[in-house]
User: Fold this.
Amino acid sequence: MIRLSGVSKSYGTASGPVRVLQGVDFQVNRGESVGILGRNGAGKSTLIRIISGAETPDAGTIDRRMSVSWPLAFTGAFQTSLTGIDNLRFICRVYGVDTERHIPYVEEFSELGVYLREPVRSYSSGMQARLAFALSMVIEFDCFLIDEIVAVGDSRFQAKCHEELFVKRADRARIIVSHDPGYIRSHCDRAVVLQGGKLHAFDTLDDAYSYYTEMMA
Amino acid sequence: MNSGGDSLAAAWAIQRRVIGALLMREILTRYGRHNIGFLWLFAEPMMFTLGVAALWTAAGAHRMSNLPIVAFALTGYSLVLLWRSMPTRCISAIEPNLSLLYHRNVKIADVFFARLILEAGGTTISFVILTLVFWLGGWIKPPEDVLQVACGWFMMGWFGIGLGLTMGVLSWKSEIIEKIWHPAAYLLFPLSGAAFLVDSLPPIGQDVVLLLPMVHATEFLREGFFGSVIRAHYDLTYMAAWNAGLSVTGLLLLRSIASQVRPE
Assistant:
């Protein structure tokens, strides 16, 4: 279980502080898939960063009883002068996982071939995303954060990702952030809508969906 | 990976693991696997110290005192590297590592600690190797009191850690810090006691330079190295007060920015 209570966050700008989140209450239970819908700039990424622990809120509390992944397919944490394998080593060390045991899986899944032993700098963005996704699967998290990854690689690779994330790891919790209600609808048990820094919860996917489409109209 | 009810021991184990991972990442990023690889960690400070020792010998700096100039340069310049390299590496350390915060166990403090350990380790190994080489080569006599030398080294290392943390966080708050650090470090070098003995200064000069904490560790270490040949001037309590003050300041500053740092 992960529970956010009364979470608020503001950022200082040249024209004064801007409140991004305001008294947000949010809970995700084990094995649950929850979608977070919101327009661009609604604070989705801020919320994800707070849930992942990359950022701390100004007010409110977070109770984490599950291990939480970094946002899936996030490539920004790569040290691009190091090789794919060295980046894998770093992640494994940070999370206390044996590296060597996971090299075959990453080789097979990322389909990077000899490039796995080349600096990440030489990768295309698609190759980086493939490596990032493979690394995320090496650490067995209780809860995966999925931040608009819908477009990783070609359709065959997307199918592989879907298999890993939603079939093999169906027992895990997932928090999926998107402005695409169709994706949320097909992957989540329920959804919340982020609007003007406040979070609106709904009992059913349909309620969240109709609220969101009305809001966008 | 559990949170919430983490015991202190588990938290310590995680932090050690994270700092270890950052250390390896830092070594590979900085030195790579080409030519001598991570040996650069101490080859670099050794080259500095050797160069300075050679320069001072050639410049005839021995007329400044009756001490062997090689040992004088070795002790003085190694100590400069120790207090100067840690802040230099901590400045602007946050920005390029912000994205690591997505790994929940990685904290900004870990980034600093990994760099501090690396710098302290590199300069210490360099100092030890050069001392052994010079001694076995017959250029210097071994230190008279090894424990006192180690103690002086430790005091300077502690100073570097406190200064490094403080400057590292301040440089994140303001870009001016990075700009003024390099000239400041350059100007402080000749005043830090590396190139003179306090005893050789006129009394008014002694009072002034002894305001600088680095001078105390340098004098103390040299007394351990040369023994009664020199008359050292130091007050380790004064230096410890500086060190503690800087360490506490650095840690408080670190805490104060915890809610402000955020990855892209």
